[in-house]
């Protein structure tokens, strides 16, 4: 009987011990959670204190120093020293002007190379759109750059006057050499122009603001782009491509007629001898000529 009484007592003791262990475990977990909260609170306070101690004047000086860096002294336009490229702040207007600088530079030098005439020292502004289309096989619409009117072509060149100028006798010339080591200079010129434009805008000079056409406005402006063909008249609403295509077709017709002309000046027809040899009436000859692809 004594042993039977000891067994319930042992069970009760074991139960008490287990409950005590559970309480100790819960207390320990609660202590860990409390420690985590305390650490989080300390980190938050340290962060707030760090923010309060920020030297905003120092940061401002660093930004000003960064903005005042001479772009022409930078060796790598893809890294200005902070891991950022020189063109990090370019907008679509800056990219458009960068492309315009590069294309007009190449166009000016290519014209001089291909012309071979010492008396023709460059492209006249009035002929700029024609030669641009001739070399690049695409149109150039000044309206897309926010300039229009009689002086649109000159104002277009003025947008990139740091690299392209109009010199006596009023022809377009590039200020850069035809043989460049690399094309970084165009990025540097564009960044310098962007900074100067921002300085003028900050000073209240609204004339420095660009008025580029965007989206549908650009497409609409391009559809009505004026065409100037040296020595040729252009119909209303006719694009550069349409005018050039028409001229090419006319040239092909003239070449075909010259090739089809025999030694005696009589057109050689693919179906046989001249119709006059068979006594064909003149009206029928004209009708037959009209049906030929070269006629």
From TrEMBL:
**According to the UniProt record, where is the region Disordered?**
1-53
Q: Where is the composition biased (Basic and acidic residues)?
A: 1-47
Any idea what this protein is called? Desi2 protein
